[in-house]
């Protein structure tokens, strides 16, 4: 009668190694070594392209940030275009906007008005002047 004793797991490991052991002599052949070398070089080449080469992760990240910046610029320019379009419509339809523009940009006045231009002084320095010794 056989009694089963609890295993430490070491016996299972030995059984697994026994299955791999017959493959080890085959790795010693020159054709297998060449195949392993080719696979390692292929893996290294793919890793290089992934991290450094054209279309790498760094390049993709840079392009995505560039696209985001361009989209922000596009939003800003569209808002500016809408403002300019509204101003054009206002100038075409209203006399008040045209009159305001002529007064502000060209300095024009109505007959009977007096033009007064106020020139503001620059802010004086807050630091005391230097004393010569």
UniProtKB/TrEMBL annotation:
It is found in: Cell inner membrane. Residues 60-101 form a coiled coil. The chain crosses the membrane at residues 34-52. Its main location: membrane. InterPro entries: Cell_div_FtsB, FtsL/DivIC. Keywords: Cell cycle, Cell division, Cell inner membrane, Cell membrane, Coiled coil, Membrane, Transmembrane, Transmembrane helix. Residues 53-133 are periplasmic. GO terms for cellular component: cell division site; cell septum; plasma membrane. It is a single-pass type II membrane protein. Pfam families: DivIC. Residues 1-34 are cytoplasmic. It comes from the Bacteria. Essential cell division protein. May link together the upstream cell division proteins, which are predominantly cytoplasmic, with the downstream cell division proteins, which are predominantly periplasmic. Belongs to the FtsB family. NCBIfam families: PRK00888.1. Part of a complex composed of FtsB, FtsL and FtsQ. This is Cell division protein FtsB. The gene is ftsB.
């Amino acid at each position: 009668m056989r009694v089963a004793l609890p295993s430490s797991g070491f016996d299972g490991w030995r059984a697994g190694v026994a299955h791999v052991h017959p493959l080890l002599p085959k790795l010693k052949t020159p054709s297998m070594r060449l195949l392993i070398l080719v696979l390692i070089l292929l893996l290294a080449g793919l890793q290089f392209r992934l991290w450094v080469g054209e279309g790498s992760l760094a390049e993709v990240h840079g392009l995505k940030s560039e696209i985001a910046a361009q989209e922000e610029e596009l939003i800003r320019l569209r808002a500016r275009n809408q403002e300019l379009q509204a101003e054009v419509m206002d100038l075409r339809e209203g006399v008040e906007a045209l009159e305001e523009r002529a007064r502000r940009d060209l300095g024009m006045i109505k007959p009977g008005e007096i033009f007064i231009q106020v020139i503001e002084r620059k802010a004086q320095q807050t630091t005391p002047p230097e004393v010569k010794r």
